[in-house]
Amino acid sequence: MKKFTSVSDVENLQQIIKKALQIKENPLSEPEKGKGKTIGLVFLNSSLRTRLSSQIAAQNLGLNVLTLNAAQEAWNLEFTDGALMNGDTVEHIKDAIEVLNQYCDIIAVRCFAGMKSKEDDVNESILSQFEQHAKVPVISLESATRHPLQSLADCITITENWYFDGSSSSPQAKLSINRKPKVVLTWAPHIKPIAHAVGNSFAEWMQEMDVDFVIANPEGYDLDKNFTKNVKIIHDQEEALKDADFIYVKNWSSFDDYAKMPEVKDNWMLTNEKLENTNQAKVMHCLPVRRNVELSDEVMDGENSIIYQQAKNRIFSAQAVFSEILDELNA
Ligand code: CP
């Protein structure tokens, strides 16, 4: 693997899921693979899971880890090409990336959507600068339009819960289920406009999985067609959740009326009552979650939730990707 910014960088999805599940069984199976190499984790935005799971994954592979919380700890960055830097910005992103090239063998970056310019966000105005100026492999830790390490963790979580017993990746534990799971990505309420990256990315990855996938969201909240393609979009949550095996809860703002929050009359928060209509669906959320806004306490803390398992799988998703990037570097 030469870089990892979307599902298109994965040659064989089933193979990398299998690899991640093997890593989960034995996380220290390749302790020397990253020896003498450094990964730079650059965060332009906040993080709990991505930062810590990436650090654990890198350490399990023997990589040196540099973590830069750029928004708080670095100089105020300028992103515009040709800018006259006589204002608040102190260092151009091009120069920062060139310096990272001197220190790192892999650069991983988190750069959220700015949510001000649709064009900038759709065109990945920051990630594209990393891709352009980095001389080492680039990994996305969530960009304006995608969150691929999260999506891989989501695929791992669905696989182990559907095809295995939910706790083991051993082939002996394989369950004899001979139908595809129904996976529903459902929009949830929020108090402020949220970016599309997780929803887009989940939609993209589910289309590569052997699942029946539908999206439920209110009118005015359809995701970018470039990501949803021909996926069925249902504007009635109750109808969409019927017989679901997995429900992925996530908020996003309007894409058409960019970053706005059109009024929603129905209550889209996921509750235990709504789970009654499903096939005892497992509930997923990438976290952080606003309890009793996106989903109720009873769902979050209930037996259908696999949300903490999903968060744990962020380690194995990251480790599988770092390991494949190291294969390329060590070749
Ligand atoms: N799911 C996720 O990416 O969590 P963080 O934003 O805390 O990294």
From TrEMBL:
Carbamoyl phosphate binds at S47, L48, R49, T50, W75, R110, H147, P148, L149, Q150, C286, L287, R314. Residues 3-160 form the Aspartate/ornithine carbamoyltransferase carbamoyl-P binding domain. Its EC number is 2.1.3.11. Keywords: Amino-acid biosynthesis, Arginine biosynthesis, Transferase. Pathway: Amino-acid biosynthesis; L-arginine biosynthesis. It comes from the Bacteria. It is an enzyme of class 2 (transferase). GO terms for molecular function: amino acid binding; ornithine carbamoyltransferase activity. Residues 198-323 form the Aspartate/ornithine carbamoyltransferase Asp/Orn-binding domain. N(2)-succinyl-L-ornithine binds at E142, H190, K250, R290. GO terms for biological process: citrulline biosynthetic process; L-arginine biosynthetic process via ornithine. Catalyzes the transfer of the carbamoyl group from carbamoyl phosphate to the delta-amino group of N(2)-succinyl-L-ornithine to produce N(2)-succinyl-L-citrulline. Is essential for arginine biosynthesis. Homotrimer. Belongs to the aspartate/ornithine carbamoyltransferase superfamily. SOTCase family. This is N-succinylornithine carbamoyltransferase. It comes from Chryseobacterium aquaticum. The lineage of its organism: Bacteria, Pseudomonadati, Bacteroidota, Flavobacteriia, Flavobacteriales. The gene is argF'.
